[in-house]
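Exam revision sheet. Question 4 asks you to relate a sequence to its structure. Input first:
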Amino acid sequence: MSIETPLLLDTVANGVVDYKGQRVLRSNSGGWRSACFIIGVEMAERFAYYGISCNLVMYLTDQLGQSTATAAENVNTWSGTASLLPLLGAFVADSYLGRYRTIIIASCIYILGLGLLTLSAMLPSISTSNYVGKNKVTLASSELQVNLFFISLYLVAVGQGGHKPCVQAFGADQFDGEDPVECQAKSSFFNWWYFGLCASTSVAISILTYVQENLSWGLGFGIPCVAMVIALGVFLLGARTYRYSVKEVKSPFVRIGQVFVTAIKNRRAKPSEIAIEEEACRTLPQHNSEQFKFLNKALQGKVCTISDVEEAKAILRLIPIWATSLGYAIVFAQTSTFFTKQGATLDRTIFPGFEIPAASLQFFIVLAIVFFIPIYDRIFVPIARAITTKPFGITMLQRIGTGMLLSIICMVVAALVEIKRLKTAKEYGLVDMPDVTIPMSVWWLLPQYVLFGIADVFTMVGLQEFFYDQVPIELRSVGLALYLSIFGVGNFLSSFLISFIEEATGGDGKDSWFADNLNRAHLDYFYWLVAGISAVAFTAYLYFAKSYIYNRSSTI
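Answer key, structure tokens:
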């Protein structure tokens, strides 16, 4: 027995149980066998989400009759809400339901929203009311269609709010960070996770956009609904193999919140009264007691532990990185709105009689990601590791910053291409003919899409890993929700910019930067502005990243 016990302890996965609540061994649970089920359900969710979002601006303008600026604002508002709701979903998961149950409930809400969205697209369109005798019926149908459409759309956002932060955290939980082999597999998990997401997104963009514009919007929204139903079934099949995190008796939100409350209460405490506790902080590995020293006041009276204070400091250290990443998120918001409208004016003919939908150009973002992730994981990281001697080649913050720089270059390229588009429209006398295709190939837009795809490999994946790794273990769903909230706030900031600029530049009968006739608009000015905002944010990011202290030495 004395010989077998150490072997058993070596193979037991720490801090997790199986579906019966019993301890699990690494050899028969978790790992890639479980992660594959979880990646599968997330691929279906991304297929559904991008099946809606990538062509949403075209549906709003062509089917619901909204202006370009209004449609862009609505898309940004919905995307922003969908990216902020994960904060609520993560709170519910980490404090009450657990990740597994939250995923199941959120998936059901998601499926309900997709079903109603399909129904709304099948109702009589606003543009079908041509008979005077049926005016009342048509108006009622149109109002029902619009109301049902937006209710369904935001139901999808609620479903994503519970689904998105939990699935990725649940997938990463299948790897034990304390085991050297599984720790390295976890880093690769984030890369291949994003690879799978982009593969499903590319299918959605290339196939669903064509179905929506050439066959039926109802069918284009219905296919994602069926995909989510199948994915939920597949996810449930893996239940016996999953590792489930053991919930703490005391909510991590309560523990960390108590640190701030106690520190405020003890704000007038004398330094000598907490000197002993501060000295204890310094004895911790990777201690950060010199940062946010005001929180050390929470140690007085033994209400909060040193561990609680260090976790609260870890949350505070994320704020500057979160805030300076917003510039990248504003760039991200343009890819599904103005980039798409820009492409709709160009020659999209592949061969005689076949035109690609403007929204399908987003396929080249995911194509760049799918192509570059294996290069990053299998070639770039080993070479960088040999040069820097760091476990992952470069640090997470270096990875994020590289993508930010590429996104700025992307916006500069987009502005230059837009100048070329406007010049071509003027040369051919098409300025006042917005419905006529400009004799300029849509492939001019390819560099900006590819650049942003490569930027995503660095920044998007880097942010996911950073916000998962640098928060307390019990708050990892919240960490990923914080990552998603960057893009939620970024979408709202983009919407605010559009609204403000539309008001400022469109008065006195003048064409605004976002005029419905894009040949008289000035998207190039807007792209230059976004590039400038991103450059300022990137400069601030470099300042804060340089002084950031990682929570765990393994991440350096």
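Marking note for examiners. Confidence is low (pLDDT under 50) at residues 1-10, 126-141, 283-287.
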